[in-house]
């Protein structure tokens, strides 16, 4: 690893890490990946070494500018404030609020309910149904909101932080076999975003820690 280069503590399959990988790619920030395998060795997020970096025992964490930041949205907002081009939050305060509302809906209202540590609290046979319910009830709300906010992407025609949350969450929906046919706007935006370079290079199938059998 090169001194001074940002280091992203990431797991290839983590949707929250993917949000940050997209931001780094869009902003053209060169970084090293420090893989944290959430399954191997009982979960490397529980190691003393990693807990010292992020006491929440979750990825992502980004070492940058002499500090370490946890929480994907806080990381993205820091990148936005320090490396503002291209912008991921619109200039107009009303649009910014919509972007943050959608980001929070996904990052606070959907993903935590289907995260590994929560699913582990649920009876094994109920896990799939639990995750599907969390995602589809969040997507019902999201689809309704997007009817009023979407252009080409979640809010208008520019890629924003909301889009960085949407694509990884749709990938989770796919992983948990959620029927996305009731969500035509979510599906359309997801398809448009996946065609962009930054979403492809950051894809779980293309990370340094992606196992060979899962490479895309
Ligand atoms: N709010 C946090 C959530 C982070 C999170 O849930 N990370 C997951 C992977 S997407 C994780 O590390 N899970 C480990 C575990 O549940 O033990 C963020 O946005 O960064």
Keyword list:
EC 5.2.1.2, 216 residues, 9 helices, 4 strands, alpha+beta, Glutaredoxin, Glutathione S-transferase Yfyf (Class Pi), Chain A, domain 2, Glutathione_S-Trfase
Describe this structure in words.
The chain has helices at 15-26, 48-53, 72-82, 93-109, 116-119, 127-149, 161-175, 184-194, 197-201, and strands at 7-10, 32-35, 61-64, 67-70. It is globular, with a radius of gyration of 17 Å. A 4-stranded mixed β-sheet has the order 2-1-3-4, with helices on one face. The chain has 216 residues and is α+β, with helices and mostly antiparallel strands. It has 2 domains: 8-85, Glutaredoxin, CATH 3.40.30.10; 93-199, Up-down Bundle (Glutathione S-transferase Yfyf (Class Pi), Chain A, domain 2), CATH 1.20.1050. α4 (93-109) runs antiparallel to α6. It is built from 9 helices and 4 strands. The model has no long low-confidence stretch (mean pLDDT 97). Helix content is 48%, strand content 7%. Bound molecules: glutathione. Glutathione binds at residues 14-16, 38, 43, 45, 58-60, 71-73, 107, 115-117.
